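Input chain follows. Return structure tokens only.
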Amino acid sequence: MTASPLRIALVAGTRFPVAEPFAGGMEAHTWLLAQGLTERGHDVTVFAAPGSDPSIARIEVIDGGRFEPSARARADVSMPPDRFLREHHAYQSLMLRLAADTTFDVVHLNTLHHLPVAMAELLPRPPLLTLHTPPTPWLESALTLGTTVRPVAVSQHTADAWRPMTGPIPVLHNGIDLQRWTAGPGGAGAVWTGRLVPEKAPHLAVTACRRAGLPLRLAGPAPDEHYLRTVLMPMLGPDAEWVGHLDHDALRRLVGAAAVCVVTPCWDEPFGLVVAEALAAGTPVAAFRRGALAELVTPECAVLVDGGDVDALAVAIRSASRLDRGAARRHAELSVDSRRMVAGYEQLYRADAPVEAPMAS
């Protein structure tokens, strides 16, 4: 006996496409969730930025009809930046459309933007909202208005941060496709992956790896050109190389060929997808103990130190490189399997389905 499929609207961000190479963890999460739900037989429409991958589900671009303000409006002192206005209008148009559409069984807000949350009261049914971030002023304000929203957090750390406003909420860790993220052979060097931005602090990974005596390869997008040019690039050399922004297959090979994955957040990570990816590749982790990272690892597969302590991180890098790769992979299989994540969202969807779906043999 199986439940009938659901018609799901998955609302993503407007700034980056849901496609490889992913701009960040949210895009990877949306891609994997849409693919997994489609494979489970659901009718999924992803509302996302141009260039999103049509192989995972039906894609509809969030563009708001390409709104352009008049010359008089542009001349007003209150005129916001163009990107802010385009994003606001795009989400406003989408939410008004979804408010009039009664055919979706579920609307899932998988975006950091506040407007879909603030307008959630207009929807025929309460939408699900995945909280990928600690509290921000705009999103807090929207949640105060959007009382029908059903939030779920990507970690217990994130759920605890939102608790004063939301009360206790469900937690669903992000997942990894363990069929694709297979264990690698390891190697002699270290790896760092993610967005090359100050709050991720790859420059601290370079310093720590040098003190540990391990060569480092870095991979990821570089959205902050000033940081890249003035801070990180001058530090690179024969023992520290940036290999660019890689698709998932190339990234898996890179991470799987390292002895240790170095993770250096200078902010409280809401989840830490790079940790999950490293463990899936069988690569132990050396990291700053910030945000949710401690939820994702055990002493058998990672060594954590106080945030910002580069000397301690150098020691941790050497220690983690000697940990059992099989233990790292086994922990990933138990904790970050994407099939468990998709099934968890499916359960949350059905908890508020309009009518119990008829059962079929």
